Amino acid sequence: MAFFFGLGHVWMQCWLLVIGAAVGTIAQTPVISELSGYPGRGYSLPVTLGTSTPTQTLRVVLDTGSSNFAVATKSNAAISQYFDTSRSSTYKSLHKSVSVTYTEGYWRGTLATDNLTIGSLPSLKVQVVGIEESKDFFVAGADWQGILGLAYSSLAKPDSSVTPVFNSLVNDGAVSMDLFSMQLCGTVDKNRRLDISTGGKFVLNGLASSLYTGSLVYTPLRRFDYYEVTISEIAVDGQALGLNCVEYNNPRTIVDSGTTGLRLPTNVFNQVVSSARSYAMDRVGVSDIAQCIDNSAFWNNKDACCITPTSSRNLFSLLPNITLTFLSEDDANQAFKLTIPSQLYLQAVPTKDITFDCYKFFILPSQYGTVLGAVFMEGYYVIFDRLNKRVGFAVSTCEVRDPAFQKPSIQGPTAALNNASCLYVAPPASNNTKYIAMGVGISVAVLIIIIAFIAYVSLGGSGSGRRDRDVETPDYPVSDSPVPKDGDGIYRSTTGYGRLEDE
Q1: What is the pLDDT of residues 289-347, one digit of tens each?
Q2: Known catalytic membership, residue 402
Q3: Among 127-141, 205-219, 381-395, 476-490, which is the least confidently predicted range?
Q4: What are phi and psi of 162, to 5 degrees?
């Protein structure tokens, strides 16, 4: 059955190529689009939406940790423009509400269809949510007006019947390859302190060999919602933490362009910080950097370390490389290592005093697993190969802030222990747990009855009651996404969409 399905898939790909050649709709070479942004505010892409004169061009944040395409359709104090649906002759409302709630805000709007153009690709009809109301979602000065989710349809809101944009590109033949890639470069001008804007590339319909050096390595996808991979070891300055590798992937490890930092499960984070801090303290001596290294708020991403440019070089040398080991695609008993040097996880932040360079430590704790965000991706050209169910990496051609220090690097694949044991599997609920839950439920029900009876008596048994204040429950659902993007850079939410962090 799988054999015939595989043949059918290959036949479909070939048929799309034939049709594309006949009607001229499929791009045959990689389509490369420029990305831009600011540290902690995401990488955004220009797109043209709707059919109008003049055209309406917006910028949308690229997010591999979510699946909806959503743009502002109402004015908002934090943005300079929005998509005017009344000007588009191809806009069609589907009269379906979409709502996403975060720990510190929300957005909601209406699902619709309209024509979308990305780069030199042909225009095609996609599903888009027009954001009509929001709180703490848009960010003043971030220069984007929406979000383009690139994950699988199972993450789409309100349900998987919503077709993500990338699915539409493949299904409609706008691209001939079911993969995309990203090169996130971090701060573009390494010598500027007032303007530390970021740049990068988004590639559709193939690979861009000019954006990477050396060989490509691949790790298999574990599930098809987020881009979930498996880490088998983490090392600080080459010294393995030596934890049970399941801890690194509890409950999952995902590659997410919509998160700024490298987020690690709490215990893993504590081990990494402890090792990194000890490494730095052994080397720092007496200097202005010592105040940073000795400051717990620096390690918790609360305080920036502001030092002279000369000291910046010393800071890079005082903090160790972090190495992540991944399951290899070729063999479960092989693995490869990706190095994250200190000048990647130390992110430049803006300062008004041009005599100082300011950095924040962007490795953060997480209660929801490991999130490989922009801090990690900025060292590599990252390939999201959905056709072959894998994620690929190669060393990026992006410039590093200081070439004199360690650059991102790849080692392997080499022989390793069986990494299959590193996969986290949620334990089934025990009978004792079920009984406890039932007991708690019964106790709560009895308590509610008692409180209701007391209230009834205190109101004289009239049955009408009196409310001093009406409390309205919002009709948008609380998101069930397991990946919060709060405090690590771009999103402060409980889902893959969210409030970009600029603090």
Answers
A1: 888 888 999 999 999 998 887 777 778 888 999 999 999 987 778 999 999 999 899 98
A2: no
A3: 476-490
A4: -75, 130
Banded pLDDT at 351 (limits 50, 70, 90): confident
Question: Do the Cβ atoms of 343 and 430 come closer than 8 Å?
Answer: no
Taken in order 61, 62, 65, 70, is the CA torsion positive or negative? positive
- How many residues does this entry show for the chain? 503
Rg (CA), the chain: 25
- In this structure, are strands 105-117 and 92-102 parallel, antiparallel, or unpaired? antiparallel
Tell me how far apart the alpha carbons of residues 269 and 272 are, in angstroms, rounded to a whole number: 5
Of 178, 225, 256, 357, catalytic: 256
Residue 134, pLDDT > 60, answer yes
Is there a contact between 60 and 82 (Cβ–Cβ < 8 Å)?
A: no
391 within 8 A of 229, measured Cβ to Cβ? yes
Which residues, 6 or more positions from 303, have their beta carbon under 8 angstroms from its beta carbon? 292, 295, 297, 360
- The answer to which of 41-55, 122-136, 488-502 has the lowest mean pLDDT is 488-502
Using alpha carbons, select from 84, 74, 143 the residue that is nearest to residue 114: 84
DSSP one-letter code for 33: E
Instruction: Report d(CA 438, CA 293) in Å as an integer.
Output: 49
Asked whether 63 and 258 are in contact (CB, 8 A), the reply is yes
**Strand bridging mode 146-149 / 56-63:** parallel
- Paired with 254 in beta bridges are 228, 371
Q: What residues contact residue 263 under an 8 Å CB cut-off, 6+ apart?
A: 269, 363, 364, 365, 366, 369, 370, 371, 373, 488
Q: Which residues contact 466 (CB under 8 A, 6 or more apart)?
A: 459
Q: Give pLDDT tens digits for 219-267.
A: 999 999 999 999 999 999 999 999 999 999 999 999 999 898 999 999 9
Fill in the amino acid letter for 170: V
Question: With bands split at pLDDT 50, 70 and 90, how would you rate the model's confidence at 191?
Answer: low
**324 DSSP β-pair partners:** 234, 338
What are the residue ranges of helices labelled H in 378-430? none
Torsion (CA) 123, 129, 133, 135 in degrees, nearest 10 = -90
Question: b or e along 128-158 (b: 16 or more beta carbons within 10 Å of the residue's beta carbon)?
Answer: bbbbeebebbbbeebbbbbbbbbbbbebbbb
What is the pLDDT at residue 189? 63
**pLDDT above 90 covers what percent of the chain?**
56
Name the helix (H) or strand (E) containing 306: strand 305-307
Does the annotation mark 63 as catalytic?
yes
On whether the CB atoms of residues 324 and 340 are closer than 8 A, the answer is yes
